[in-house]
Amino acid sequence: MSAYFKYFPKVEYDVQKTSNLDVATNLLKRFSIKASSVNNTAIFYDYNIVEGDRPDSVANKLYGDPDLAWVILFFNRSINPLFDWPLTSEQFQRYIIDKYGSLSLAKTTVHHYEKIIEAEQTLVTGEFKVERTIIIDQTTYNSTAADSRHVIYSYYYEETLNNARGVIKVVSPAYITDILNQASNILSN
Fold first, then answer.
1. What's the CA gap between 19 and 9, in Å, rounded?
2. Is 167 helix (H, G, I), strand (E, B) or coil?
3. Rounded CA separation 107/129 (Å)
4. Which of 57, 76, 78, 79 has the alpha carbon at shortest distance from 68?
5. Percent of the chain surpassing pLDDT 70
6. How far, in Å, CA of 27 to CA of 8, rounded?
7. Sequence ranges of the domains in the chain
8. How far apart are CA 170 and CA 45, in angstroms?
9. How far apart are CA 136 and CA 153, in angstroms?
10. pTM, full prediction
């Protein structure tokens, strides 16, 4: 991540309040990209993280430079890579055991109940519509028809969250130089 800060401007600042100016990186400077741009498939595309991928290894794989890991994290609004990046299988199992006591306990502990609002379906056009649900309490669950409800166990809930972190947006390698130049121009002004 230190490569990210090379784009930030330097400022002189009297840190010690002694009239001796020190050079510091201006961390208050920011830049962003419009959310609509991230959905531009010419510039950004979905990348499926595979077991063992890390931000630096993905940056190296895509851009030939592991120091561009900040680009991967920045455009996915990843604040904390320890929690915003999917856990490996081994890390996930340790996490579940630490949080729930055991894998079997996590698989049998109810996280929440859901009522099916709209069932999944494949339309005649071939388009697939995903199931839509709402979270309900146990009393409502018990009074809902069996084919219109789900029990969501803790293991499945945590697994779904972890899997969702496995699809990220990445800058197309053809545009990485432009993105870096824009970041440099914005931050240096």
1. 21
2. strand
3. 27
4. 57
5. 86
6. 7
7. 2-86+165-188, 89-162
8. 6
9. 14
10. 0.73
For 59-114, the pLDDT digits (tens) are 999 999 999 998 899 888 888 877 889 999 999 999 999 999 999 999 999 999 99
Take residue 113 and report the two structure tokens written for it: 């109940």
Which pair of structure tokens corresponds to residue 131? 């199931």
Query: Which tens digit of pLDDT belongs to each residue from 6-27?
Result: 666 677 778 778 888 887 776 6
CA distances from 46 to 32, 66, 179 (A): 19, 19, 17
In 28-125, the DSSP E strands lie at 44-48, 110-118, 121-122
What CA–CA distance (Å, rounded) separates 78 from 102? 29
| pLDDT over threshold 80, residue 118 | yes
How would you class 85 by CB atoms within 10 Å of its CB: exposed for 0-12, middle for 13-18, buried for 19 or more? Answer: buried
